[in-house]
Q: What sequence folds into this?
């Protein structure tokens, strides 16, 4: 009798779950759309293979139609993660992003895979092969560094604080603000101070032990290549143009 009741419950629940999956409380992610936008072409093959295998389900318009996504409430939770993921990074739209935006996103990708925040834990439970390996992180790091190493230096003049404010808004605000910590620590007053001094921020061990004093010289080296200057830190985003670095440093100096 109990078995019969359980079978009847499943027979009733499955159609209801399929019907409820057509409801989209967190937005319609188009999980089973018939067509998808074109794949980006500017990402090099090695990095593209990693992103395609481990990131596209939440960070593109090319979400693969996994069978469990046809049933509510699982479908609702999936769509919540996908809709939110696309807001931050849509790999399908990669070729439409400006070079500055691409470099900012590359920095965020590296930070989150290095800290094991991405792919999301719930996704890794269902897809254990999506966990980022050391080789994956190395390949993504090489991709990010290659995108900045080809920049041509601009003419060198004294730093301009107003221009530096624009650089800050364009290149830094994905992770930083002057007066609040986000992905990176708040930066007001950083000039002239030792590294890793913002109370409550979780700095990398590499930066905690570096004992850097932030001045024109150290900030220029840091912004040129953070990994080379302080190996093992969590920031992978550099500013390749010397003039932009000078302007940004002057802005930070004036923002004390």
A:
């Amino acid at each position: 009798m109990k078995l019969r009741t359980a079978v009847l419950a499943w027979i009733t629940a499955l159609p209801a779950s399929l019907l409820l999956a057509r409801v989209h409380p967190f937005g319609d992610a188009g999980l089973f759309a018939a067509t998808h936008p074109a794949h980006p072409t500017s990402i090099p093959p090695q990095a593209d293979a990693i992103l395609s295998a481990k990131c596209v389900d939440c960070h593109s318009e090319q979400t693969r139609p996994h069978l469990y996504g046809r049933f509510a409430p699982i479908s609702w939770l999936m769509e919540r993660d996908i809709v939110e993921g696309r807001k931050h990074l849509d790999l399908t739209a990669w070729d439409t992003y400006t070079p500055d935006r691409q470099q900012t996103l590359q920095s965020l990708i590296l930070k989150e895979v290095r800290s094991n925040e991405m792919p999301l834990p719930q996704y890794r439970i269902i897809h254990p092969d999506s966990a980022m390996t050391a080789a994956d992180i190395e390949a993504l790091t090489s991709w990010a560094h290659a995108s900045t190493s080809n920049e041509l230096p601009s003419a060198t003049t004294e730093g301009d604080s107003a221009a530096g404010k624009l650089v800050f808004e364009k290149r830094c605000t994905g992770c930083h603000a002057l007066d609040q910590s986000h992905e990176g620590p708040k930066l007001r007053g950083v000039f002239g101070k030792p590294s890793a001094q913002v109370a409550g921020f979780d700095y990398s061990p590499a930066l905690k032990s570096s004992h850097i004093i932030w001045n024109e010289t150290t900030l220029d080296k840091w912004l040129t290549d953070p990994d080379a200057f302080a190996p093992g830190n969590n920031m992978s985003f550099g500013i390749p143009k010397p003039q932009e670095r000078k302007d940004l440093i002057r802005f930070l100096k004036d923002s004390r």
